[in-house]
Amino acid sequence: MKVGIPKGLLYYKYYPFIEKFLIELGAEIITSTDTNKNILNEGIKYCVDEACLPIKIFHGHILDIKDKCDLLIIPRFMRVHEQEFICPKFCGLPEMILCSIPNLPKVMTEPIYATNEKDLYTWCKKLAGMITKDKNSIKVAFRKALAEQRNTKFGIKNTGYKINVALVGHPYNLYDTFINMDIVKKLNRLGVGVITEEYVKREQINLEVKKLFKRPFWTFATNSYGFTTSIAKNEEIDGAIYISSFACGIDSVVIELIKEKIEDFPFLVLKVDEHTGEGGVDTRIEAFIDMIERKNNNENNISTLRQHTSCS
To answer: How far apart are CA 276 and CA 298, in angstroms?
Structure first.
């Protein structure tokens, strides 16, 4: 059986697991091409106008593979951590696709609760039942898929750069180079290193989140807030860049919470949609890095002056 996997949204986070699981079941995997202008344009045609950029792009990925597979997986991610949910658009994503795109093949739309192995295995059994009748192979495939996911390293942590910034946002905004216009390479060319949330311990993130009046409902909000405030407080970086999709309700809240917490710490918000131009993004990034350099030079001069004053 040919199983289609769209390379959008949380594909960038969980592709080792799902691909390994399907391969072990003997399925042929059909993935969409990397995000490009054509996928975006096709997605815009079929998606509702009010949706954010990643959702529109996901529609384009569906269109890219729907006629090439026998079974199409539309992931309805609900939870990956206890007492938290993924973005509301994920909960209704299959209905959005089914109502917007005609002539789809057989579709897997079961909700995914990945908070523990038992719940995740329940979803895997339902998926496997659409591919094979060999029940004995499911547990083996599941264990191998878990091992593949755990052994895959995610995240970015550059070393050897004089200036370093945190890159913050939903995983698909950080790892889809079309959405973010290859921002990591842009920063590296400017002599700036990047670190993402995967290199900060979950306990450290939760410690900052506990200081809020109320714990966020959404996993993306928890991660972004805890990561940025923690790494800024500990002075591990020189600044933070938040890549946000225009019309994202979660980001509209968490960005303000971060700003209030980190105060005058260098913080740049890049909002992206289908109209965002690369030239404008380049200009804002360059201005932000220039500001950090001037700030660092000023602090170094003050520190040197204090040392001379103390010695005299």
So the answer is: 33
pTM over 0.85, yes/no: yes
**Can you say how many angstroms the Cα of residue 38 is from the centroid of all Cα atoms in its chain?**
22
Q: How high is the mean pLDDT of the chain?
A: 88
**Residue 166 near residue 234 (C-beta atoms within 8 A):** no
Per-residue model confidence as pLDDT tens digits over 119-128: 899 999 999 9
Minimal CA–CA distance to 148: which of 22, 61, 243? 22
* pLDDT for the residue numbered 218: 86
3 state SS of 30: strand
Residue 26, both tokens: 């003997």
Helical ranges in the chain per DSSP H: 11-24, 37-46, 53-65, 88-91, 93-100, 117-128, 136-151, 171-175, 183-189, 202-209, 219-233, 249-262, 278-311
Round to whole Å and give the CA distance between 268 and 289.
Answer: 10
> Can you give the C-alpha Rg of the chain in angstroms?
22
Is residue 266 within 8 A of residue 291, CB to CB? The reply is yes
The answer to whether 268 touches 194, Cβ cutoff 8 Å, is: no
pLDDT digits (tens, 9 = 90+) for 181-191: 999 999 999 99
CA–CA distance, 258 with 227 (Å, rounded to integer): 10
What's the Cα-to-Cα distance from 201 to each of 40, 147, 213, 311, rounded to whole Å?
34, 20, 22, 41
